[in-house]
Amino acid sequence: MPTRERRGTGATIREYSPLLIAVLICVVLTGTAIAYALLMDWGTPPPGQTAPLPPPAGTPGTPVTTGATVQVVSRSFSISVTPASATVRPGDTVRFTLTVHPEGGFSAPVEVKVSATALGGVYRDNHDLGTVSPPYPPLTYEVTAPDLPPLVSTATVDATVTATGGGTVRTEQVQLVIRR
């Protein structure tokens, strides 16, 4: 990789090829990445060896082990919707019941929404059913089956019930079949 020198007013200026500069930058970056990777691995024992044991109990600054098993319980919830599916005639009313089942001491409010589609996405409907708080009484929602379009004898409404609370999201699928 050639370099050129320019002489002029008594000072010499050396110009390096752009390719040489790019190669040098790559070498420096690669060396830095390797050094970083090696430094980050210093606390890890080599393959086949175990990590050093902690100091014996009672040593100042270390926790004392009691031997008691600690069980970590996740605070969450699940939901159920009944009925999960129903077949009705146009104009019939169906009552759906959603129940929130808290787990591990879960006690946050749960917001419930329903989104439904039918006829290949031609029909879309979204409802906010509100918020349920502890002790989580069952939430009921009544649906009156709409009339079917001409020439359609059966339609299936697929609904997704979404419950959100305490950083947890749960969904349940519900199906309503409408037949003339």
Structure description:
The protein is mainly beta. The protein is built from one helix and ten strands, in the order ββαββββββββ. The strands form three sheets. The protein has a five-stranded mixed β-sheet with strand order 4-10-9-6-7, with no helix packed on it. A three-stranded antiparallel β-sheet has the order 3-5-8, with no helix packed on it. The longest helix has 23 residues, at 18-40. The protein is flat.
Task: Itemize the secondary structure elements and their pairings.
Blueprint: E1 3-7, E2 12-16, H1 18-40, E3 76-82, E4 85-88, E5 93-103, E6 110-118, E7 123-132, E8 139-144, E9 154-165, E10 168-179
Parallel strand pairs: 4-10
Antiparallel strand pairs: 1-2, 3-5, 5-8, 6-7, 6-9, 9-10
Radius of gyration of CA atoms, rounded to a whole number? 34 Å
Placed side by side, the strands forming the largest sheet appear as 4-10-9-6-7
Measured by DSSP, the beta-strand proportion falls in over 45%
Residue ranges: pLDDT <50 for 5 or more in a row? Answer: none
Question: In the residues, how many domains can be counted?
Answer: 2
Task: Look at the helices and sheets and give the structural class.
Answer: mainly beta
H-E order: EEHEEEEEEEE
Corresponding CATH architecture of the largest domain: Sandwich
Mean pLDDT, all residues: 81
CATH fold name of the largest domain, please?
Answer: Immunoglobulin-like
Can I get a quick summary?
With 180 residues, this protein is mainly β. 13% of the residues lie in helices and 45% in strands. The chain contains 1 helix and 10 strands, in the order ββαββββββββ.
